[in-house]
Write a structure and sequence with these properties.
The chain is mostly beta strands and 195 residues long. The chain has a domain of 131 residues: Jelly Rolls (Sandwich), CATH 2.60.120.10. 3% of the residues lie in helices and 36% in strands. The protein contains one helix and 13 strands, in the order ββββαβββββββββ. The strands form three sheets. Strands 1-2-10-7-12-5 form a six-stranded antiparallel beta sheet, with no helix packed on it. Strand 1 and strand 2 form a beta hairpin. The two termini are 24 Å apart. The structure holds dtdp-4-keto-L-rhamnose (TDO). Dtdp-4-keto-L-rhamnose binds next to strand 5, strand 6 and strand 11. GO terms for molecular function: dTDP-4-dehydrorhamnose 3,5-epimerase activity. Belongs to the dTDP-4-dehydrorhamnose 3,5-epimerase family. InterPro entries: RmlC-like, RmlC-like_jellyroll, RmlC_Cupin_sf.
Amino acid sequence: MKPEFRPDPVLKDVILIKPARIGDARGWFSETFNARHYAEAGIPDDFVQDNESCSEAMGTLRGLHFQLPPHAQAKLVRCTRGRILDVVVDIRQGSPTFGQHTRVELSAEKGEQVYVPVGFAHGFCTLEPDCEISYKVTAYYAPAFDRGLAFDDPSLGIQWPFPDQSLVLSNRDRGHPRLSDLGDVFPAETAGAAR
Ligand SMILES: Cc1cn([C@H]2C[C@H](O)[C@@H](COP(=O)(O)OP(=O)(O)O[C@H]3O[C@@H](C)C(=O)[C@@H](O)[C@H]3O)O2)c(=O)[nH]c1=O
């Protein structure tokens, strides 16, 4: 059965997806990815790597991350255990929504997904202990091209669900530059045509 696809109300190129679940006496079944259905909905991407991460503490923040071209990644993200607040920031120079972000709650219970196109930074904060995230990406991990954006950049104005001092972050995620210091990472011509 086809999922429900809808554009994010703030960032129209971000797509919110609700896969169907078919229930019976045993429980339920769900297609979590179907290349034909996703292509019809405007996600024709070839995903080449599947990732999973587990965060033990509630209030763990990973992000905001992106890879630079030519290793830029689109991502299809879901939460497979627990509940997270997922955050996506438009960092495409010249985009009408440059610097704007959207926040979406994802839970294992509901099975929602977020499609993050190329040209956006991505991160999340766990809302429960022991959360597992699974996501597909369209380019292989390329550490030399891996970059970050400061989760607490005041110009982004992101409301994280816990105070900064109680968040659990890697050292790397405490040191990312602000948006104004990123430079032209995704040039104007990628805006609007990022997927
Ligand atoms: C992302 C990644 C990391 N690694 C390694 C590098 C490091 O030793 C270890 C942990 O890496 P990180 O700290 O970057 O993991 P993490 O902070 O979970 O990074 C992820 O964050 C979320 C928000 C995203 O959007 C992802 O694209 C990715 O950047 O895993 C890989 O081997 N392959 C990968 O694809």
